[in-house]
Amino acid sequence: MLEAEPLPGAAAVEVSENPESKSVPDIPEPPADRELPVGGAPEHTEGPGGDIHRYIQPPTHASFQEIAWRELGSRSRRLFLQVGLPWSAALLVGLISVLYAKWSTDAYDVFIGWIAGRWWLAFILTPGLAVLATYLTRRWFYGAEGSGIPQVIAAIHAPRAENDVLMKRLFGLRVIFGKLGISLLGFLSGLTIGREGPTVHIGAAIMAETRRFYPHRNVRLERQLLLAGAAAGLSGAFNTPLAGVIFAIEEIARDFESRTNGTMITAVVFAGLTSLALAGNYLYFGQLNVPESLPIAFALPVLVTAIACGLLGAAFNMALLKWTVWMPKPVQWLKVKRPLWFALLCGIIIATIGVVSRGQTWGSGYDQARELLHGTAPLSEAFGLTKWVSLVVTYLIGLPGGLFSPSLAIGAGIAQWVHFFFSWTSMAAVIALCMTGYLAAVTQSPITSFVIVMEMTNGSGMVIPMMATAVISSRIARLFTPPLYEALAEEKYYNYQPPPESGITATVEEEAAESATAA
Predict the structure, then answer these.
(1) Which stretches of 239-338 are DSSP H helices?
(2) What pLDDT shows up at residue 304?
(3) The predicted structure's pLDDT at residue 152
(4) Contacts for 507 with CB less than 8 Å, ≥ 6 apart
(5) Are 100 and 201 in contact (CB under 8 A)?
(6) Would the pLDDT of 493 be above 50?
């Protein structure tokens, strides 16, 4: 009698030596959790009734070297995803921030050089380049329009069902290059735009691109990366790391969970280190020189500044959000149906304002605000108003460009009016108040506003007056309009339907405006 070795967990099968005396029963199939030997062939055992198959479990024991290499590879991948990848992306955000600042300054200087002594050239360059930038934005770089901060807010707070559409439309390499190139075209044409909003958008897009390397991507990861990139972008743009963190929490995240703060702060640190290494530890507007102690009577300029900035900031928001109310219907038709002609008209208006103001409204307004702050060059008393109009007209075109620097310049222009009534106080102190108040009224983010101006000017001695101005002006503006960036995010990007691929199309809010106009 010959006994075949049984499978584990099965009874032994007795086989007769004479194959004809008794048929060989079927050998049970191996369990599903058993594996065949390498190559898929079973081991054969010769038996009197034919081959008896014995399935052998391959050895599961690995050598020490194999285990060590496998563990090292797993730890290396985790280290790369947790440390190497986000740190490298943050360094890249810092590098792009510094380079973008230099490129935008160079583009603006080229424009000023072109029109120096040839004021008539502005009526060719500004409208012509505005039309070109509009065509590029609407034809190939949709999603790159505007400041960029509403795009980040929309991607973070939009319903999950819309997240994939928004991430594809508002971020990615196409949007990064479009934001950089077309905004530089705007600086080259003398339009009233800033670089800080685009830097926030670019920083968020760069960090968001790293999600492709993670094996388990989800909405939470994407939102963490977007928030970290936005904070790093603002920090690198202004050299204001504290303001970058507060901006991300107060303006973009609002109620975002605290677990994100580690990624966000790490991104801010590395972007800031890159900026420090390449551009140095500079103050954006230079040192603020104000008296060490301010009299109690200084409360009156604080109150007047807060009221004036709150009302003007609310008016600016209403001009952008309610353009269908005040804009003549023929111009509305141009904006909706003929965007290139609308861009041409806006370019002519901006060029006219720039020539009439003797060049004070060109660009972001950084040079004018800095000169006024330090008393090195006087500005026209109408600078605040002309800059306000120029910024409204520029933003209505829909080109890539930010609001931060122009808003701070408008605040500096308002300070001239306030100081006229309170000439006994420091002009630099009033400028700091007005910049804080106007920015807080537009964004309705008071903490970000006073922290960013404080870091830009090293104005720690003005913290309490700036805090009071920011809180009051933002409250006044909220009585009339919602926060600008949130309102633009809801209006433009929530419930978004992708535009057709061909032609220059009207955006969703413009279609609604056309319907309202026709009604």
Answers:
(1) 241-247, 261-279, 299-321, 323-326, 329-337
(2) 95
(3) 92
(4) 398, 492, 499
(5) no
(6) yes
